[in-house]
Design brief:
The structure is a homotetramer of 363-residue chains. Chain A is 40% helix and 15% strand. Chain A is an alpha/beta fold and 363 residues long. In chain A, helix 2 links the parallel strand 1 and strand 2. In chain A, helix 2 packs parallel to helix 3, helix 6 crosses helix 9 and helix 11 packs antiparallel against helix 12.
Chain lengths: 363, 363, 363, 363
């Protein structure tokens, strides 16, 4: 009885609370486009996508794909499958650029002949190379969902105009889509809220594609000219998660075990497919969701070498305060993190029940 | 009897034939997208657009604009006004890229400090520079027509897919739009009928942007990376009108006088605004409309230097038969022309009454 | 009587005249160092050396050799043999640089993979390649003379200091020796009288090492960085014989026949070994010996592309009057010649009796 | 008397001892050419020279100078003065290259406009720039000794041929002299014993010329093309002291105080002129004199970027075992040191009495 009464009052109160909380949440939720070279299953690419999908703090406007770790056609299917597993088919997957602007498998091979062989070249890596139109069988199962009937670049442009000054572009792969969006519509950097990305390397002897040379970080190396376009655009804010901080993380068996205790589809998927690895993109996603994870960051002018020589695709940078050309803004570059806080968030997000797509679709 | 019967049948047959022939003619009209840095009024850019609009042999699917001789916003208005004057507002004008992929006014200035000042830099020429969003008053009057509410790159992609293997992409300016179309949709070169363009320079001491150095031809220099993307794409056919042949033409006072005898809006517009000049784009348009104008051409592997050094934007080329990388196709490069035939066609097209837009719009 | 008297007076007068004339001659004779990639036997390289040796107007201080058309060790023997045949062992042959500053056979092969195969690469040409220390048998016989026990670069520096403002450096090959001399002693350009060279290409579709691309002229392409050093040094005067004028010449069977009528060792050597060919270096030598041969020349700022990309080793140039960096002087570039006068001089020099080395050696 | 006897015995004994000691020493002593951009007074450049001069274990064949931290004319005087102060005028000072091969003050200024201002440019640093021929007053006094009447490059070539397989080339400055020696005589790397150098940077955020970018280390950046020539030459052994290890050292006030306790001319000179600083060249010298100072080193393929773009002059490297071109040898790169052992050696050498030049000059 009392229980009923209390219950009744409780239900009303709860409803009100939820409505208030809901609208507050809605107002506060960051609108994000997750641009990713979505190698699957699992991998740092898909895991960071799942973090966004599971987080109550963001509204993922869409997941846009781009060739990088794999070819974009294959990646798009992996992304779709991940969205299905997360129960978030309300979030569109939008296929993007199949090739980088200038870089190519052929150019990478000429480069290697002169300057030394790479250990990893994403979709171009010889030991698992296949042509862009080939899609090997998906271990995690084929998605039934379809990508949006629109190009990722058009989607990015459309969303940024629909929600001026509200959209965060978060990029976990090569920057081809974003560079194309800028060249199609120069207002994009001015109309977006901010750019957050995983890429680049500074002073670090791991994490790059050429072993000990961390400045040749994969995402940036894969499409250097795209990076150059993006890093000289008039964004209101650029935040970079470089390999220097990535390599301070590790997706250990212990973390996997903590996730395996959960029995959600996401947890089961990760338990089956996730591998021990540096947490490149997960950290970048986490630092966006909870900036308190970052304990050290610097403002630097950051760019990439687009000379087609020995340093093609290497990060270049100078300190804030150095006299540089006017169109070269500073970026906020993350160097230190609270590791425990990061791992805790990761496990928490990955073991939650799926977010329901309760809110009206905003696209 | 048999004869009569045959005759009757013949007449019917003839009618059918004519109808068929009519539709055959229609089927044969070349579908062209005219991609142009449409500096106006008049100029080689607008004059070549008018040739296409006046020609009975082509169906202009659209005029797409791109920054080059002027900024694209200004050019788009000049193109719209030209379309109005030609009475062809049935042909859409579609605005394209505002900036080249990598090249920039700033980079051109650094280059000049090291390697010598340019005589002409299109929209970046100091003596008539204004920012991209500024549109000076149009001497020929403001157009009332509006550009299509679509980006030139999307328009190109849409048209090429709508009419697979039928569309000629004719480019009289920097190749930014076409390169972006390729990077948005790698099937474009395979689905287009052919690419025809004005650009590049080989062995010629005039016609380039640096006086005696004809290999640094303006259209190509303005967006070298776009040229590189375009020249390595799998087109079925590439035809190039280089400055080597351009400089064998001249829009003289005599030609102007022959046009001035006509009293069409187009002739009046040209009489008022056209200036004596090399006929770069008019020749490229003419050679497409009547290949018989060309008396000498060669097959060459053609590309551009994208090193950001002394030769940035210079044409590079090797003879057909030279061992080159597989993805470097040959182009047909025009070197000799029948000048009289060309001038005759130009005067003829420019003095015709406006084509009526009698055919059902195909877009 | 009168005769005797006259004679006596005459003898005295003659002696005086001769002495005066001699000293006048001596004073007027140009001191030249002939720097050459002396491929032998005969060839444009050796033939130009012979012109200098046979000319009464120059004092050849030495012949310095440099790898280019062949490796320098082989060339040095060909040069020594030519000096012997011309009876001019009073002129020292001095061996120079074996390798260009930066360019290499390996780099040329990488370049070819990307940008197309070369037709000719001098000592690196695959069809007659041998290592630098190998010297194939000399068809014209082995020389008994020895090269000077000094490096060509030291010799150049020593001579220019010995005869300040008197020495013409004439270069018919890659500019490695001269660049090294400048970097060893920055005063060389200021202390030399002038620099005369065969190299570079402007607007011409023959004569280069890549078929139709005349701007990639062999001498300059072989050591681009040396050219860059040389063309930015403070010479009092630079004169260039480019391929644009070279290709207006031809060493025909007719010219050979005119030489064959002579029975000097030089004529016999040429009759046996000389081949029909463009007269690259002979023309440059001739124009130095008789400037009247040149009918058209221009002042241009000339340099070379040292970007290691598509245009590595291509001539770059801008018109005099263009705003360029201060340290980029103009060169006099020859474009037109009096062909008959040139051929006449060539035949005349090659059919003369050997000059006797009557003058005291000046080194 | 006794004195005489003792003296007599003493003289004999001493002579024997000296002969034995001398011959043992002579056999063991490393023959070194110290190639240095000898900024003075004191500085890391001069201090490392003094270490070699003071060490009983090496025979310094000569000190060759090269522009870098200062212009070579000024440096040569500082080096001569240091030699005088150390009482070692038996060691010749030989002046070398005034300019790097390709790099220049002008190029550095163009670079800075595009990619950001440098903090330090050696002889080209604006805040203390003067022309190469100007020599400001020497605070430590003018030397009376003169440099050898020979060019450093000739000297290096001559010594390496005189003592085949015995000479260590130790380079503490830009590699211009050594590169020129290689290009003058390709046998130098094969005939030298080894190459030891201070230069390059790998993964370090200090010590370079652009603040946080340690890969643009001064010595290497000043003449990148020289480094490229040197690093692709067939040395028997290359040892590199990079800034990564340099920055683990510091010439503190404490070390200065320990030296100040000594009253030798060298100690007095250092006490007066030496400044607290990273010990770049001292460490490289020390590690050569006592390899036990180094606690960690790696074998890497090391080179430099010679593209004239954003990374011009930056160290490039790949791990040993990577597939690289055949002509790219590995170098031994030092990363860790026993700091105390290093400081002890430094203080010990700098506080010793001057070595007497007791041995017959070997040049």
């Amino acid at each position: 009885m009392g229980k009923t009464r209390i219950g009744a009052a409780g239900i009303v109160g709860l409803t009100v609370t939820l409505l208030c909380f809901g609208s507050v949440l809605f107002a506060q939720r960051h609108k994000v486009i997750v641009d990713q070279d979505a190698r699957g299953p699992a991998t740092t690419d898909i895991q960071s996508i799942l973090m966004f999908l599971q987080s109550p703090d963001v509204e993922v406007l869409g997941i846009t794909t781009v060739t990088g770790d794999q070819w974009v056609k294959e990646e798009t299917l992996h992304a779709l499958r991940a969205v299905e597993i997360a129960g978030r088919t309300d979030v569109p997957v939008v296929m993007g650029a199949e090739y980088p602007l200038l870089n190519s498998k052929e150019e990478s091979e000429w480069w290697e002949e002169r300057f030394g062989q790479f250990g990893y070249k994403g979709a171009w890596t010889p030991r698992f190379y296949h042509p862009p139109e080939v899609v090997p069988e998906l271990p995690e199962g084929k998605p039934t969902a379809k990508p949006l009937n629109e190009h990722a670049v058009s989607f990015i442009i459309r969303m940024v105009h629909k929600y001026p000054h509200e959209v965060t572009l978060w990029a976990g792969g090569p920057l081809t889509n974003i560079a194309l969006a800028i060249r199609m519509d120069p207002e994009i950097p001015l109309l977006a809220k901010e750019l957050v990305l995983m890429g680049s390397g500074f002073n670090v002897g791991q994490g790059g594609i050429s072993g000990i040379n961390g400045r040749r970080e994969f995402n940036w190396w894969f499409d250097p000219e795209a990076v150059h376009i993006v890093m000289h655009a008039p964004w209101k804010k650029i935040t970079i998660t470089p390999v220097d901080i990535s390599i301070k993380t590790f997706l250990s068996d212990d973390i996997k075990a903590r996730i395996a205790r959960s029995d959600t589809p996401v947890a089961r998927y990760l338990t089956q497919f996730s591998r021990p690895s540096t947490m490149w993109d997960e950290l970048s996603a986490a630092a966006f969701l909870d900036p308190g994870i970052i304990t050290e960051q610097k403002e630097l002018h950051v760019d990439i070498d687009i000379s087609h020589g020995a340093s093609y695709g290497q990060t270049i940078f100078v300190e804030k305060g150095t006299k540089v050309p006017e169109d070269w803004p500073v970026s906020i570059v993350q160097f230190g993190l609270n590791t425990e806080r990061f791992y805790r968030m990761y496990v928490d997000l990955m073991t939650r029940p799926a977010r329901t797509a309760s809110l009206p679709a905003s696209r």
